[in-house]
Amino acid sequence: MKLSRRQFNQGMGAIAAAAACSRQSFGFAESGLRLGLNTWSLRALSQDEAIPVIVQVMKQARLKDCQILFSHVEPARFNPVFPVGVLSAPKLPPTPQQLEEQKATAAALTEWRLSVPASYFENIRSTFEKQGLRIKSYSARLGSSEAEIDRLFLMAKALGANSIVARIPEPLTSMTAAAAEKHRMIVGIQFSDVNEMQRQLAISKYFRMDPDIGDLTKAKIDSLQFVQANYMSMCAIDLKDAVPGGPSVPFGEGAAHMKEVLQFLKEKQVPFTAYVDCDYPGTGRSGEEVEKCVSYVRGIIGYE
């Protein structure tokens, strides 16, 4: 993912202007940068055990908002349990039997999504709200059909979220944009190809970017320069520290310019949430590591 300063700015002016005009009507009435938890930080928890642990960790870390990961919402039988530790180990190609099993699991997940009642998600929402917490965004794994993508937006609404974040494969861009228009809901695009993401942004006024400063750093992109050029087109930001071209590391030990990025966003009074996303070795289940990351961020911005 290579990006020059010229590419940062190319085509972003009109998008940024549109974003500035429409934020309040799309649910961004809050002023100023907020701090939340990306539950990817607790990715090694299966859905069967995740919700009470996430609630406990958020309360201990004094966080009110979260971006909840799909594997913490959808039944565990459909989803992987992400391992603790470094996540970049090479994967072997699936065997024919594994491919068939994957297809069967995907079909079962689609059937579940199309039939599960809204009350399933409303109950999860209620668990958070009873503790004074909020699911602000749903980190979704997209389906492959118009009906399934539409259901994902309904699921997010039932959870209480005001946005969905996802990687959007190019063939699904139009369907996702149509669903966003129908439900009047922001979609935060997670990306590995900056040029493709910029093309997607232009397709819908409901599309924003949701960059991860650690992933940008791993791709040898200057995260501060990227945020300064594109913050008006963002709906959120994920906070991770990393080594350029290398792994994630504890907050403050990498080159993601976390301090400078946060100070810049605080100064600009951006009306969105910075989600703590710790995925360095030793995280995945640890509330203590989440609290360390939150404490580091609070030491920079000075408020929640």
Describe the structure concisely.
This protein is α/β, with parallel strands linked by helices and 304 residues long.
Task: Write structural notes for this entry.
The chain has helices at residues 5-9, 12-22, 47-60, 96-115, 118-129, 146-159, 173-183, 194-201, 213-218, 223-230, 258-268, 287-301, and strands at 34-38, 65-69, 134-139, 163-167, 186-190, 207-209, 236-239, 241-242, 248-249, 273-276. It starts with a helix and ends with a helix. Residues 1-29 have low confidence and may be disordered. With 304 residues, the chain is α/β, with parallel strands linked by helices. The chain has a single domain (5-82, 104-301), classed as TIM Barrel (Alpha-Beta Barrel). Strands 6-5-4-3-2-1-10-7 form an eight-stranded parallel beta sheet. Strands 8-9 form a two-stranded antiparallel ribbon. α5 runs parallel beside α6, α6 crosses α7 and α10 packs parallel to α11. It has twelve helices and ten strands.
Report Rg: 18 Å
* End-to-end C-alpha gap: 32 Å
Name the helix and strand elements from N-terminus to C-terminus, one letter apiece.
Answer: HHEHEHHEHEHEHEHHEEEHEH
Q: Supply the helix-strand structural class.
A: alpha/beta
User: How many structural units, i.e. domains?
Assistant: 1
Which of globular, elongated, flat, extended, rod-shaped describes the shape? globular
The CATH architecture classification is Alpha-Beta Barrel
Q: Which CATH first-tier class would you pick?
A: Alpha Beta
Roughly what is the average pLDDT, rounded to an integer?
A: 89
* Unreliable segments of 5+ consecutive residues: 1-29
Helicity, as a percent range: 40-55%
User: What is the β-strand count?
Assistant: 10
CATH topology: TIM Barrel
Main β-sheet, spatial strand arrangement: 6-5-4-3-2-1-10-7
Q: Biggest sheet, in brief? A: 8 strands, parallel
Total helices: the number is: 12
Q: Work out the strand percent.
A: 5-15%
Query: CATH homologous superfamily?
Result: Divalent-metal-dependent TIM barrel enzymes
